[in-house]
Write a structure and sequence with these properties.
- By secondary structure, the protein is an alpha/beta fold.
- It has two domains: 142 residues, 3-Layer(aba) Sandwich (Rossmann fold), CATH 3.40.50; 140 residues, Rossmann fold (3-Layer(aba) Sandwich).
- It is 27% helix and 27% strand.
- The chain has seven helices and 14 strands.
- The strands form three sheets. It has a seven-stranded mixed beta sheet with strand order 10-9-8-11-12-13-14, with helices on both faces. Strands 1-4-5-6-7 form a five-stranded parallel beta sheet, sandwiched between helices.
- α1 packs across α7 and α4 crosses α5.
- The longest helix is centred in the first third of the chain and has 17 residues.
- The mean pLDDT is 93.
Length: 299
């Protein structure tokens, strides 16, 4: 990694700075400008000739602008004779549009992947993709970082400090898509059990709980999900768990989108990562900088 340089754009300045420091790499300089008509300019101001370049940029809201910033900077870097471009997208916007759910729908995650391919990205690193199949949309190598150990280590310490026995913990998947995450996180605790929320979506950004599968009565429930967006899934899961006799509910999620709505105040503790740079009252943020630095270094 001696001949490498790290860039950030309008997102993840702190995360990019932390990653660069951990890898002992310099930060590149970019002139980022928005013209009055809405067009974007991202001009490289650093010497990148023959260097391995790392761009760190989540594509959270406004996703279109942040995607385009990446594409424009990548072209500027190629014109500056960069040797390679590793793109780190801690939060991959449009990842929930990964299949055709209704007739005529696009697979937008595939469209975004194609755009990154045209930008000559050599390698993609991301954190907790919404679905594993998105990796297949890329021709370049894709590293998808799991966060279950990050959350597991955090909550092992938290439960110990708050005198919560690990055997009294139930790790809860709030929908079928989070089942593997729940199993992985559950493996971090001694004798913890797993529960699942049977959920359906009658419309985009809305969810309804059908049933809770698993024994949660008198237990400390830890809900794990990849994205908190409108908060409906988590709030509905909380209500269902309390109705089934859960003692208390904790939440951890990789990506703090929080586009609309708020989590219930009764939720005991909420932990997210810094994949999206956002301060949310009452929400604890844990850093992915170590995980990303290791993924970059392991070429």
């Amino acid at each position: 990694m001696e001949n490498a340089i790290v860039f950030y754009l309008s997102a993840n300045k702190k995360l990019a700075t932390d990653v660069a420091r951990k890898l002992s790499l310099p930060l590149g300089e970019v002139e980022l400008e928005r013209f009055k008509d809405g067009e974007i300019m991202a001009r490289n101001l650093s010497n990148v000739k023959g260097k391995d370049v790392i761009i760190i940029q989540s594509t959270d809201c406004p996703a279109q602008d942040k995607i385009f910033e990446i594409l424009i900077l990548a072209d500027s870097l190629k014109n500056s004779e960069a040797k390679s471009i590793t793109l780190v997208v801690p939060y991959f916007g449009y990842s929930r549009q990964d299949r055709i759910a209704r007739s005529g729908e696009p697979i937008t995650a595939k469209v975004v992947a194609s755009l990154f391919q045209t930008a000559d990205i050599s390698r993609l690193i991301t954190v907790d993709l919404h679905t594993q199949q998105i990796q297949g949309f890329f021709k370049c190598p894709v590293i998808n970082i799991d966060t279950f150990e990050l959350f597991g280590n955090y909550f092992v310490k938290y439960f110990e400090e708050h005198n919560i026995k690990q055997e009294d913990v139930v790790v809860v998947a709030p929908d079928h898509g989070s089942a593997l995450r729940a199993r992985d996180l559950g493996s971090m605790f001694k004798n913890a059990s797993i529960a699942f929320i049977d959920k359906r979506r009658p419309a985009p950004n809305t969810s309804e709980v059908i049933n809770v599968v698993g024994d949660v009565k008198g237990k400390s429930c830890l809900i794990v999900d990849d994205i908190i967006d409108t908060c409906g899934t988590i709030n509905n899961a909380y209500d269902a768990l309390i109705e089934k006799g859960a003692k208390e509910v904790f939440v951890c999620a990789s990506h703090a989108v929080f586009s609309n709505g708020t989590l219930k105040d009764e939720i005991k503790h909420v932990v997210v990562t810094d994949s999206i740079q956002k301060d949310i009252k009452g929400v604890k943020v844990v850093s992915t900088a170590d995980l990303i630095a290791k993924a970059i270094a392991n070429r």
